[in-house]
Amino acid sequence: MKKRIIVGITGASGILIAVELLKSLKKIDEVETHLIITEGGELTVRDETNFDVYEIKRLADVVYDIHEMDASIASGSFLVDGMIIVPCTMKTVAGIAAGYCENLLLRAADVCIKENRKLVLVPREMPFSKIHLRNMKELADIGAIIMPPVMTFYHTDFSVDAQIKHIVNKILLQLNLPSNIIEWTGGKKS
Ligand SMILES: Cc1cc2nc3c(=O)[nH]c(=O)nc-3n(C[C@H](O)[C@H](O)[C@H](O)COP(=O)(O)O)c2cc1C
Questions:
Q1: Smallest CA separation from ligand 1 atom 5, residue
Q2: Is the CB of 90 under 6 A from ligand 1?
Q3: Residues 162-183: pLDDT tens digits?
Q4: For the CA of 10, the nearest atom of ligand 1
Q5: pLDDT(143) > 90
Q6: For position 151, which CATH number holds?
Q7: Nearest CA-CA partner of 137 in 166, 97, 186
């Protein structure tokens, strides 16, 4: 059976990271992607990118409506290997931390937590408030992986494109999927 990975896109800045992730996952034969986009996510796709949301949806194997509360991924009996929320808003972080499942994305994340499955969040805000940090700590304490889209300076290509690819490769590593990560091979030798 293929690895089922849920990708959640919410209304934070950084939609291009989600697009790059979906493109990378599409190239991995062993993976089947299940996509949910919040209403905020659809708005941010429109405001921040030149993509039509349908172009993004076409990159996934299965797409759900955010209000489809009876979808397969709303139940723990539907086996999935993990969920990535990228980019993840502070609203969605708060919703997951509170166990408040008012849309399918929040419910799917809640299911991952209760079933002890991998949950990776790419939270995006700057600066983080104490409320944001408290909610993220709550989630880290129960095993969620919190990986804000932090820039990397140890390779030579500093373009936004290279930064996005690096973040995506770090996410793939978390899910034990093939990744083209540029490894740090040690500091300069004197
Ligand atoms: C263009 C745009 C960029 C935004 N960027 C962020 C962001 O980086 N982080 C964040 O927490 N909210 C951001 N927001 C606000 C969220 O979209 C808003 O709180 C929304 O209700 C989140 O809902 P969701 O989590 O269901 O997608 C942004 C909104 C817009 C329109």
A1: 12
A2: yes
A3: 999 999 999 999 999 999 888 8
A4: 27
A5: yes
A6: 3.40.50.1950
A7: 97
Going from the Cα of 91 to the center of ligand 1, the distance in angstroms, rounded, reads: 8
* 155 CA to centre of ligand 1 in angstroms: 30
Whether residue 181 is contained in a domain is answered as no
**Ligand 1 pocket, 68 CB below 6 A?**
no
Report whether 105 contacts 92 (CB < 8 A).
Answer: yes
Residue tagged 């921040």 (tokens)? 48
Average pLDDT for 135-150: 98
Q: In this structure, is residue 187 part of a structural domain?
A: no
Cβ–ligand 1 distance for 163 under 6 Å, the answer no
* 17 domain-assigned: yes
Contacts of 165 (CB under 8 A, 6+ apart): 20, 180
Report how many domains make up the chain.
Answer: 1
Which range of residues forms the domain containing residue 70? 3-174
pTM exceeds 0.70, yes or no: yes
